[in-house]
Amino acid sequence: MSSANLAVRSSNFALYGDMSARVMETLRQFSPSVEVYSIDEAFLCLRHVEPQARTDYARRIRAIVRQHTGIPISIGVAETKTLAKVANRYAKQTDALEGVLDITGSLERQLELLAALPVVDVWGIGSRWGQMLRDEGIDTALKLREQPDWWVRMRMGVVGLRTVFELRGSNCLPLELYPRRRKSMMVSRTFGRATRSRQELEEAIATFTASSARKLRREQLIAGALCVFVSSSRFKENFYYNSARSRLMTASNHTPTLLKSALALAQQLWRDDVEFARAGVILTQLVDENIVQLSWLDDYDPTDERAQRLMQTLDRLNQQSGQEPLRYAVMGTTGRWQTRGRYRSNRWTTRWSELPIVRC
To answer: InterPro entries, per this entry (predicted)?
Structure first.
């Protein structure tokens, strides 16, 4: 590793998420309409900027994001999301462009880029469609753009036809300014070391469940069903995977209620002869927390104000400290199963104890 000048690093999700939020907040200073597409990607509307000024405007965005966060970004500008992705790809790969490429209104430039772009790399195509298109002799984005509508509709449906329209410059994918209400939620980890301890497995599942419950409350959702899954290492012999599901009598985001169901499922999945390497919790049947159907058979009342205030207080205190000092006993305290993070960089922006030290 040293001979190749490589450095080993563990994942640092807390830092990634916080820096992503800072980048997105900076982007919102430059456009009234911003769609956060993923942790490292966003779409902005630049209709308020004169066409001839958009390249300079994009360069300014890039410079300010770098100044505020230290993170270099690349920007592609075009009539549609799909073409903007194409422009962004080349802006990132071509040093001479200095991270910015505007192909709006330049059909010749668009066709040039599409002719050099493998069809499998078009946003939304993927490996399955990519293989089918290559089998048909359509190996570039330009060739896909030139296919007749009836053929695209027959082989790729409406979704594929939308992609082709986007490649031609017709805007078919408007900005989604408000996140879609999710239908499921999963928290899962590969353990730092495999375990044969029932207690450690239950601690992991309880930790994942509590994390899921916090996310539900943050997004004002409740879950109607819960799934727990476990597995051994797929790189060892006698690979084991199993899962169990249960439906809640009353949809809930109440941590103790979800813990009770999750731990009952964990007991069903336990096997003495398995060395567990991974586990996870999936919450499904998510609905708005204001839409709940009560059950006369359930002890938990989602309208109980004391329970709601308790959850809100726990969330607030844990968020303020950033280190989750208040935990349910079943989550344990040692966390021997957790990812080791031996090579993780410091969480500079979310942990007081890991703040960088400046000596003057």
So the answer is: DNA/RNA_pol_sf, DNA_pol_Y-fam_lit_finger_sf, DNA_pol_Y-fam_little_finger, DNA_polymerase-Y, DUF4113, Rev_trsase/Diguanyl_cyclase, UmuC
